[in-house]
Amino acid sequence: MTSTLVVARKELLDLRRNRFMALLLGFILVAVTLSVIVGAAQFRVKLDEFHQYVAALKASGSTVTAAAPQLFPLQLLRGSIEYIELIGALFAIVVGYGMVAKEKQRATIELLFSRPVSRYSVAGGKLLALAVTWLVAVVVVFAAVIGVLLVVGRAPLQPVDAGRLLIAATVAWAYLLLWSSVAMALASTSTRLSTGLIAVLVLWLVVVLIVPQIGDTMDPDNQVPGGLFTSLQIAKPDEQAVLAHFAGYDTVRNGLEVTSVTKHYERLSFALLGIKDTFNQLPIATVARQTLTYSLSLVLASAAAVVLALVTTTRKRLLRRTS
Amino acid sequence: MSGFVATVRHEVLSARRERMPQALLVVFLGMVTISSLIGWLTHRTVTSVWQTTVAAGLTTAPDPFAQATPLSYVGNVVIYVILIGALLAIVLGVSSTLRGRRSRTTDLILSRPVDVAVHLGAKLAGMALWLGVVLAMAATLTWLSISLILRGALGAGDTARLVSFFALAWAFLLIFVVLGMLSGVHGSRETSALLLPIVAWSVITFVLPQLGTAALPVSLLNPVAAVPVQGAGFALVQQVVGPFALAEQFKTLSGTLLGTGGAGSVGTAAAALAIALAVGLLALLGTKRDHLRRDLRD
User: Fold this and answer.
1) DSSP alpha helix (H) spans, chain B
2) pLDDT in tens, B82-113
3) Cβ <8 Å between A217 and B38
């Protein structure tokens, strides 16, 4: 246990001193906060348009009343969640891969294993450091996002929103830890370091970008600028009735999407934060019940990745590869 | 001149042997092959949706794909060039310059009276040639898949449009090869040399377009352009950052070449890509001999 903590402490010190790591975290912080600012500005545009519409109605002497656009602050986080799922995963890979790569490159792995460390101490220490690193990163990112929501978005956050944000942050932490663990495992198991990096980058490309992209472009509503059903001027209930005729197609499309763990993370986060309209303003317990599959799959995938990293980052494997 | 040709041949051979570009190449060609099928399936579904809504008396709007050309099936290829092709180009560029630094062959070559610009230019030419071959394969696969869907050969006009699109893709990818080479030349470590251009790519692909149009990062992966938000200074921001959003400029030009329509000015898009390539080339070919040989001092 002590050696695990020693390794973890050393890794955290390394990460704190790593300027490249600071650059990556700074970048993701800027991207997610900019995204909230853009979302807030977009809402203001909508509000201005509404005011202009109301003024025009009044000027024409109309008595028709229009519903004002409502601000649901957490919906402004959509872009931020997407940045975490796309770029956050890439950075998680960099950090996880670096945990093993630097030891192999500097040949410190031999020195490390010349000490009386137990079978899982090194892997456990590195994973602990990763868990702490992503915890700190997620706390900083979400704190910044909340700050921007309050100051720039002028969004009144309710106590229940804090709970939603806390769970969303936990989900983001599990997702990032998953990618770091996968990268660490592949860096440990590959005979050449570059092979491990290739494998994990191709995996990222397929799981994070390609599979969700295929699912997204197969969605009929995404085939026309502004949306197919908007362009056909079809109301929501009618849209659902029409789509019921294409259940088979949608099952295939959805089936493809859910093969990607990234989509599970996205759907879970969107539901928790009310970004997906069908979950907006529902109690957390209801959302949790309806998204149980995604929660379970994300937890299981993350746990499996951590276990994989734990059992592959061993003395036998690492020393065999460097000899 | 023989040195130039030798370097070009060496680059092509190395690019063929490198495992990482190979893996990305397999993914790229695989996705290009199935993209027409995805496009066709989606078009067919949208048309069926429209027919259902018309039959139910829910709309009188015309079929959104009534004017669609056969090349609209390849809309996804544009995205795969931006996603997989650009990453492949970055990896090729980084590997090319890092390979020489790691094996110290760059030091050895530059100990001879070889011009740095000619040496780096030859490396770039080698990779440009390799990318040309890859894109020719992709173009052939696309042509075949569309012809298969149409149950007949694609017409001469559409074939010319397809060829011009892949020529544009080649020029677009060269920007990322140059970016990768620059990172390989200036980077201190392999990991950072590989990842810094990937970070730059993610800024170009996701962050810059969002600032000017309020489009969400994931929606930028859709070949159909998002409707830009007007007001609140978005148009102004778009004027400033838009030309740097090279992926969006590439989408605009591709839409025009494929006849599927592009959202934006063709002139601005062409100028933005040409300037980006020219600036990258100037920076690369202007690399100092001492800088390339700095590893000797370490």
Assistant:
1) 2-17, 19-55, 75-80, 86-102, 105-110, 116-150, 156-186, 190-202, 208-213, 234-241, 246-258, 266-285, 289-292
2) 988 998 899 889 988 888 888 888 888 888 88
3) yes
| B111 at A interface, C-beta within 8 A | no
Buried b (16+ CB within 10 A) or exposed e, B229-257: beebebeebbeebbbbbbbbbbbbbbbbb
* pLDDT, mean of each 10-residue run, chain A (323 residues): 86 88 87 86 79 80 73 85 92 90 82 81 92 95 90 79 92 96 91 79 90 85 77 78 83 89 94 89 89 94 95 82 46
* Sign for the pseudo-dihedral over CA of B90, B93, B96, B101: negative
Task: Output the six-digit token pair for B56.
Answer: 């139910």
Query: pTM of the full predicted structure?
Result: 0.87
Q: What is the rounded distance in angstroms from the CA atom of residue A27 to the CA atom of residue B286?
A: 29
ipTM strictly over 0.85? no
Count helices and strands (H / E) in chain A: 16, 0
Cα→Cα distances A189→A250, B46, B220, B274, Å: 38, 45, 35, 43
CB-count burial class (<10 Å; 0-12, 13-18, 19+) for A17: exposed
Domain spans, chain B: 2-60+73-297
Alpha-carbon dihedral sign for residues A31, A34, A38, A43: positive
Binding-face residues of A in 15-54 toward B, CB within 8 A: 20, 23-24, 27, 31, 34-35, 38-39, 41-42, 44-45, 48-49
A15: which 2 tokens? 């990460």
Token readout for A85 is 């799922």
